[in-house]
Amino acid sequence: MLLFVYVFGGAISHGASSGSYLGYLLPGILLMTVASGVSYTAFRIFTDMTTGIFGRFRSMPIARSGVLWSHVLTSLVANLVSIAVVFGVAFAMGFRTGAGVAAWFAVAGILILYTLALTWVAVIPGLTAKSISGASGFSYPLIFLPFVSSAFVPTSTMPGPVRWFAENQPVTPIVDTIRHLFAGQPVSNDIWIALGWMVGILLVAFTGAMLVYRRKIS
Amino acid sequence: MTTHTLSDTGVMLGRSMRHITRSLDTIITVTIMPIGFMLLFVFVFGGAIQAGTDHYVDYLMPGILLIAIASGISYTAFRLFNDLKGGIFERFHSMPIARSSVLWGHVLTSLVSNLVSVAIIVGVGFAIGFRSPAGVAAWLAVVGILVLFTLALTWIAVIAGLSASSPDGATAFSYPIIFLPFVSSAFVPTDTMPGPVRAFAENQPVTSIVNAIRALLARQPVGHDIWIALAWCVGILVAAYAVAMVVYRRKIG
Q1: How many Å apart are CA B46 and CA B187, to the nearest integer?
Q2: Structural domain contains residue A117
Q3: Which residue in A has a C-alpha nearest to residue B181's C-alpha?
Q4: Is residue A2 included in any domain, yes or no?
């Protein structure tokens, strides 16, 4: 965020209606924060798997899914703290928004849904990885996705194939939705595309994680 | 004596080069990151960056080359560290060879491997649209600056390789050096940066080196940037060489 705002920001044309570049950039930085944060969930699950604590939990009278859900909810709390820190730094750098309470709740809801979706994706490598680097390595493509989206520059400035990819991947509608909510602008159908992506990823990842988990503990 | 030193250095260079040719993945690893940055900045950010040029790849190329060198020299530190820990230095010292040739072998290997990396990156640059009207003399001047820059950074790497206590410690020194081009004129013009950042960017070594290379490749007058660039490179080279030799003597003494 510091690099793009203070070093590159002055040279990047992001559209006059967007206000400061910091305001334009922040939604993408928040998604990158979540993407890098979920790798720790995979790491913690991998550690639990290799140390045999899962086996001990299975011998106790607790819901089997409770073990995974605790990791997922821990990820959610940890990522919300990280997001709050990033917001704090952004405010210190001059980020301001005219968004009302409802818009802020909508942003929080989107970030929670995004975190849950990515965390359930993280559960799968956490359960299946053979090494620590394998458990956390999956997150690199997730961290990279915002770079090839509307997070840093408008997609209209990109060449054909890159633009097509950027406009049709999950991060762009999520970023655009959060950006519009902060700017107090109408969110159009971006919000439904964003929700579609997040709910879809969440359901697929949750199903995949549960199948892998049952196979691992049976 | 000089002939003896040169032939010893040649033998050491051959030894280090064999390590490189047997693990070409190091050159691939070194080139992947700068090429990745080049593709990202040209094809994703390039259209939105106002750099005062029609072809952003032409503007970007000098900085990418410096990043490639900065990431490449970390392997020199790593190889030196391995030699030191493996005890091969002691074996060399028991032989009738010039002591400095052991270091120079590593340094010249770094120079050769970095020039290969630079050539690969320039090749990729041409493939994605980089063009230069520069003549032979300008290209030779660019190569000269890059050679000097590589030597300067490699002697810094030698210090890290000799004094580190772990492989991570040996290579970690390169991260600030890799980061320097980002806060320079390598990616965007310095006049678009806010006050303090601009002051730093305009007065650090990378900016003058990048500007000199960019002017040479664009066939524009280089102004006094080239002298500032050369002064930085030579200054760093002399200081790093002196310190490296002191550390080396302390290690083997």
Answers
A1: 9
A2: yes
A3: A7
A4: no
Q: Is residue A7 in a domain?
A: no
CB atoms A11 and B40 under 8 Å: no
How remote is the C-alpha of A147 from its chain's centroid?
13
B1 pLDDT tier (thresholds 50, 70, 90): very low
**Looking at the 3D structure of chain A, how many domains does it have?**
1
Verify whether the Cβ–Cβ distance B50 to A11 is below 8 Å. yes
Contact B48 A10 (CB under 8 A): no
Domain containing residue A178: 18-217
Residue of A nearest to B179 (CA): A3
Question: Which pairs count as long-range contacts for A111-115, CB under 8 Å and 24+ apart, including other chains?
Answer: A111/A30, A111/A34, A111/A79, A111/A80, A111/A83, A111/A178, A112/A76, A112/A80, A113/A195, A113/A198, A113/A199, A113/A202, A114/A31, A114/A34, A114/A174, A114/A198, A115/A34, A115/A37, A115/A38, A115/A75, A115/A76, A115/A79, A115/A80
Q: What is the mean pLDDT of residues A127-140?
A: 78
pLDDT value, residue A85: 93
Question: Model confidence at A34, in pLDDT bands (50, 70, 90)?
Answer: very high
**pLDDT tens digit sequence for A11-32:** 877 765 556 888 888 899 999 8
What ranges do the domains of chain B cover? 2-252
Interval A54-98: pLDDT, tens: 676 667 676 656 777 888 888 899 999 999 999 899 989 888 788
Tell me whether residues A11 and B49 touch, CB distance under 8 A. yes
